[in-house]
Amino acid sequence: NNDTNALVVSGGEPLLQQEELIVLFEKLKKLGWWIEVETNGTIVPQDTFLELVDQINCSPKLTNNVQDSEERRIVFSSLRKLSLCGKTSFKFVVSGKTDVWEIKKLVSDYEMKEVYLMPEGRTRKEQAEKYEEVLGLSLSLGFLFSTRLHVLFWDNKRGV
User: Fold this and answer.
1) The whole model's pTM is what?
2) Strand pairing category for 114-119 and 88-94
3) What angle do CA 106, 110, 114 make, to 5 degrees?
4) pLDDT digits over 81-135, tens only?
5) Rg (Cα) of the chain, in Å, rounded?
6) Of the residues 45, 48, 95, 153, which has the maximum number of CB atoms within 10 A of its CB?
7) Which residue, among 83, 88, 117, 112, has the nearest Cα to 100 in the 3D structure?
8) Spatial separation of the C-alpha atoms in residues 65 and 74, rounded to whole Å
């Protein structure tokens, strides 16, 4: 007997399977489930998808993520729709003060309401090195703060 009727869908990128997820979500909503989705905000969500989801956690990639070009990282129509739906928290992984200008611009351009800053770091040690700086930035800018809890729990371990 499981009394937890909640589902969190994370990635890769869940919105790549939007059609299939809509079918699943419709069935779960009929049973009273809470549905939460993690996304990077690069794929425009369908209206039906947004109607079925209770919470969206969007982590747009910043310039400090040099693997992708800006046009691949920042998709205007997707971020705008996610921001306007009223169900989205935005989370930014921060490497330092140099990221602030970009975050402030994104928050302003897309009218993001609930914004979290998280210290960059793949290990507990790297997280600890940036914790105080990013916490200070969060407080001074009026943003929320979060650690990257999975890193604090499991360090750099894969497959947990």
Assistant:
1) 0.87
2) parallel
3) 85
4) 999 999 999 999 998 899 999 999 999 999 999 999 999 888 888 888 888 999 9
5) 16
6) 45
7) 117
8) 12
